[in-house]
């Protein structure tokens, strides 16, 4: 698993009866790679992992691995209330052909470093797969500090990257200071991508890429190669959309936009519900302006 470039955190395609649409998922993953993305992350927050069963997650993994047929690597998000289940999911992902794991803290339970370290260490150590530690204190209330990340990196050879979603771009500099070049750092919040790359991030676990992959790849590439004028123009156009990724209804937002551009359905599993009223009007307005002003090259 190469934790560099644009790696979509893909949505989980659902049918009207809310079962997983494996054919649509396979086609979607291939569209991402055809558009220049570097890999796929399945069953993250955007993939509605909390509403998928253990078996569904492994079935989704098999679908993606088979669809990509070696063209790009697949990583599975690993999150659970129970450490034993997270470990079992990691091992099952390896058996299903995944090449990487995105390791999250346990859902709901928030504790001290001793317990969080024990949990993620158990998952990272469960396989030899390349692991990315996901730090998102806003969503999960667990904050992996730079010194703690360095501690994990020193103890686990297969911890290769960190997805930084604290919202504080200074963390990228702090992680680099603590870890040197030991870990790849990836941006995990869509509306911080340019700032993150300029601070030293080498990858983007992206959300709106699910509807706008070519623009996402172009933005990342321009920022990474230092073409700030082009990056600024793209970022200015993209930001109203990217900001839809960093609010509670981000799954509904992105799935609705996918459906509008002909690349998915708006179906979500409860407790999420499809957009209505003011929420729908907001997203409809943002998308209409984005499509009207969409860059031509």
Q: How is the secondary structure organized here?
A:
Layout: E1 5-8, H1 22-34, E2 40-42, H2 54-68, E3 74-78, H3 83-95, E4 100-103, H4 113-124, E5 130-135, H5 137-140, H6 146-155, E6 159-164, H7 170-179, E7 184-187, H8 193-199, E8 203-206, H9 213-225, H10 228-242, H11 250-260, H12 277-292
Parallel strand pairs: 1-8, 2-3, 3-4, 4-5, 5-6, 6-7, 7-8
Helix pairs in contact: 1-2, 3-4, 6-7, 8-9, 9-10, 10-12
Defining traits:
297 residues, alpha/beta, TIM Barrel, eight-stranded parallel sheet, 8 strands, 47% helix, 12% strand, globular
Report on this model:
The chain is α/β, with parallel strands linked by helices and 297 residues long. Strands 1-8-7-6-5-4-3-2 form an eight-stranded parallel β-sheet. The chain has a single domain (5-227), classed as Alpha-Beta Barrel (TIM Barrel). Helix 8 runs parallel beside helix 9 (213-225). It is globular, with a radius of gyration of 18 Å. The longest helix is centred in the C-terminal third of the chain and has 16 residues, at 277-292. The chain contains twelve helices and eight strands. Helices cover 47% and strands 12% of the residues. The protein has helices at residues 22-34, 54-68, 83-95, 113-124, 137-140, 146-155, 170-179, 193-199, 213-225, 228-242, 250-260, 277-292, and strands spanning 5-8, 40-42, 74-78, 100-103, 130-135, 159-164, 184-187, 203-206.
């Amino acid at each position: 698993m190469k934790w560099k470039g644009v790696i979509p955190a893909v949505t989980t395609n659902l049918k009207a009866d809310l079962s997983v649409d494996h054919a649509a998922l396979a086609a979607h993953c291939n569209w991402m790679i055809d558009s220049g993305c570097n890999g796929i992350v399945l069953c993250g927050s955007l993939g509605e992992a909390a509403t998928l069963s253990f078996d569904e997650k492994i079935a989704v993994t098999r679908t993606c691995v088979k669809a990509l047929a070696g063209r790009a690597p697949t990583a599975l998000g690993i999150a659970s209330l129970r450490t034993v289940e997270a470990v079992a999911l990691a091992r099952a992902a390896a058996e299903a052909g995944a090449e990487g794991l995105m390791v999250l803290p346990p859902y709901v339970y928030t504790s001290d470093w001793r317990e969080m370290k024990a949990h993620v260490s158990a998952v990272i150590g469960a396989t030899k797969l390349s692991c990315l530690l996901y730090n998102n204190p806003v969503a999960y209330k667990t904050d992996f500090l730079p010194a703690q990340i360095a501690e994990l990196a020193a103890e686990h050879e297969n911890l290769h990257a960190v997805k930084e979603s604290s919202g504080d771009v200074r963390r990228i500099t702090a992680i680099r200071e603590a870890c040197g070049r030991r870990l790849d750092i990836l941006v995990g919040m869509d509306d911080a991508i340019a700032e993150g790359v300029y601070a030293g991030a080498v990858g983007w676990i992206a959300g709106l890429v699910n509807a706008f992959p070519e623009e996402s790849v172009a933005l990342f590439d321009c920022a990474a190669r230092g073409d700030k004028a082009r990056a600024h123009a793209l970022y200015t156009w993209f930001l109203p959309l990217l900001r839809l990724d960093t609010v509670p209804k981000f799954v509904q937002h992105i799935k609705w936009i996918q459906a509008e551009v002909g690349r998915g359905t708006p179906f979500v599993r409860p407790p999420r519900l499809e957009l209505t009223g003011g929420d729908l009007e907001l997203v409809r307005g943002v998308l209409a302006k984005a499509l009207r002003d969409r860059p031509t090259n």
